[in-house]
Amino acid sequence: MKAGVCDKICVMKALWLEQQHITFRPNEPEPVPEKGDAIVRVRCAGICATDLELVRGYYPFTGIPGHEFVGEVASAPPGSSIPAGTRVVGEINIACGTCTQCRAGRHVHCERRSVLGISQKNGAFAEFLSIPAKNLHPVPESLSDEAAVFTEPLAAALEIQEQIQVRPEDRVLIIGAGRLGQLIARTLLLTGCNLKVVARYERQRSLLAAIDVQCIGEKDIPRSAMDIVIEATGSPEGFFLASTAVRPCGIIVLKSTYRGTLKIDFSMVVVDEITIVGSRCGPFSPALRLLCRGQINPLPLIDARYPLSHAIQALEHAARPGVLKVLLCFE
What we know:
By secondary structure, this protein is an alpha/beta fold. It has two domains: 11-150 and 298-329, Quinone Oxidoreductase, Chain A, domain 1; 154-278, 3-Layer(aba) Sandwich (Rossmann fold), CATH 3.40.50.720. It contains ten helices and 17 strands. It has helices spanning 49-56, 100-103, 145-148, 151-163, 179-189, 202-209, 236-245, 266-271, 284-293, 311-318, and strands at 11-18, 21-29, 37-47, 68-75, 87-90, 93-94, 114-115, 128-132, 136-138, 171-175, 194-198, 214-216, 226-231, 246-254, 275-278, 302-306, 325-329. Strand 13, helix 7 (236-245) and strand 14 form a beta-alpha-beta unit.
């Protein structure tokens, strides 16, 4: 495992975020594994809307961002079931295992959790990362790196169906056809539901049209008519549209985090008996199965590929309106 010149300290290339300022560091120290951690050599990483929001100040993170990755285990802790050389993806929530939430089986809500590339744990925009071996999932040989890197966001999309039942007769509306909205649409399409997506950009609409998903504009959103509305824009305007579209006794799923505060008409929620569901990370194993079987093909969502040394330019590209997935492909 050599990412640079190694004498007393081995170094690697990495992207560093501090006080909303990003820099490329060619000589960042390689990670030292904590107990139970594996060291993973990153092969490919995806840029997510959360990464862009961290740069804008959504959360005061200092360190190496990035949480969507596929890599190869460079070293594994004693007793690990995943040996060195295994290609892997990894769950991003790092739980203590002992708090009330962990003991109840709610590890993603651990009271002392750190989150890869988001909170208290350096992430994947680097040549190497350290992550608990128990968080890793082997990637089948049949799956390419560029498809496998979508495992984490696809799992987040699948979490919706872990939380609520989506039936073929349900009228479902997704507000937002960006990176996550596109994946959510593809997972819901498998349910046979009556699906519509609010999409602003022509590329978004063409990608959805290619899989026979109906797109509508904001002015065409039906009022008080949808059984399930999924808000995937992360904007107050998106929530307002969701609240106008959902029928009485319907469900709004919030699939985005919001910077700052969000104004909600709780009278509407109470009078119309609306159920609001927050939805975050999801199951990796079903996501990998769907990718391996070809039931979800994320490759058309890739808009650009950059080497790690051009990560700053990659983030700038990803921040342009309407751009979907931008990847860092490591040399």
